[in-house]
Amino acid sequence: MEEPEKLIVEGKRLDGRGPEEIRPLTIEAGILEKADGSAYLELGDNKAIASVYGPREMHPRHLQKMNKAVLRVRYNMAPFSVEERKRPGPSRRSREISKVAREALEPAVFLERYPRAVIDVSMELLQSSAGTRTAGITAASVALADAGIPMRDLVASIASGKADGTIVLDLQKEEDQFGDGDMPIAYMPQKENITLLQMDGHFEPGEFEEALDLATEGCKQVYKKQREALQKKYAEEEEE
What we know:
nuclease; exosome; 4 helices
C-alpha cells in the first residue's frame, strides 16, 4: 500500500468520515444452526463470524477448574481475508489476539456458574481491513449472549487513534498503517468497566485522555448495535 500524502484533508478522512465517526456497522445474531451461539459482523470492509460451543464438560480433565468454567478463545484470519494470501494455521499474532480477546471477554461471563466446564469461542475473520481484534471481540460477545450464557454485560470493542496529529475513532487501513498511533479498547457500558486497553504509537497525556474518551463513546455506539441484533433475533424467535 502506498502511503498517502495526507490522512486528513479539510477535516475529513480519506473515506469521507469525520474524526469521531465509525465505519458502517452491521451485526446479525444466530446465523449458524450447529453452534450454541453465533454472530456475523461487518465493520467497514471487515467481515467476521463468531461461534460459541458450550458450556460442556472440559476434556482432558486435568485442565478443568474446580470453581469455574474455562473460556477458551480462538482468533483466526482466513487465508483469503487479506490481499496477499495468508499462510494457514496459527501465528504469533493470532495467539496474542486470542489471549487478549479471552481476557477482554472473561469479566463479562459468569464463569463461576459452570465449574469443570469449558466454553469455546471462535472468531473467524473472513475479510480484514484494520480493527480485526475489536471486530472479533464485538462479534464474540453477541455470540455468547446468543448462546444463552449468563453475562454481566455485553462487551463492545473499538479502536481510537491518531492520524496527522488528530485523534480519530475507528481507524481504517491507511490510518492504521501510516497513522501516529492506535488504541483498541473493550468496554462494558452498563458496568462502565474497561476490559481491554492496548496502545501502540505516541500519545501526549492529553491526547491519551481524548483518545480513551472517544473510544469509550464509540463502544457505546457499538453496544447499541449489539443489543439491536439480539433483540431482532429474539423477536423473530417469538414470532415463530
